[in-house]
Amino acid sequence: MVEGNIAFLGYGIAAIGPGIGVGLIFAAYINGVARQPESRSVLQTIAFTGFALTEALALLGLVFAFLFR
């Protein structure tokens, strides 16, 4: 018999989105720096801001998984 909480399953599925998002953010950053090396500092700031926002969504999902169990 399977026991547990469905909230943790939901968080596991919801963690796929931020994982894909982080991959896309840094893929675009690498592509942009490869095309325009002089714009590295501007693109780096944007990439890390996007990374922080994406990871905040993953952490928010984790908090809700524990909150609503």
Structure description:
- By secondary structure, the protein is mainly alpha-helical.
- The chain has one domain (16-67): F1FO ATP Synthase.
- It contains 3 helices and no strands.
- Helix 2 (16-35) runs antiparallel to helix 3.
- The longest helix is centred in the C-terminal third of the chain and has 28 residues, at 40-67.
- This is ATP synthase subunit c.
- Residues 7-68 form the V-ATPase proteolipid subunit C-like domain.
- The chain crosses the membrane at residues 6-30, 42-68.
- Keywords: ATP synthesis, Cell membrane, CF(0), Hydrogen ion transport, Ion transport, Lipid-binding, Membrane, Transmembrane, Transmembrane helix, Transport.
State the distance separating the first and last CA atoms: 19 Å
Count of discrete structural domains: 1
The major β-sheet equals:
none
Spans of at least 5 consecutive residues with low confidence: none
Q: Please name the CATH architecture.
A: Up-down Bundle
CATH fold-level topology:
F1FO ATP Synthase
Helix percent band: over 70%
Compute the average pLDDT: 87
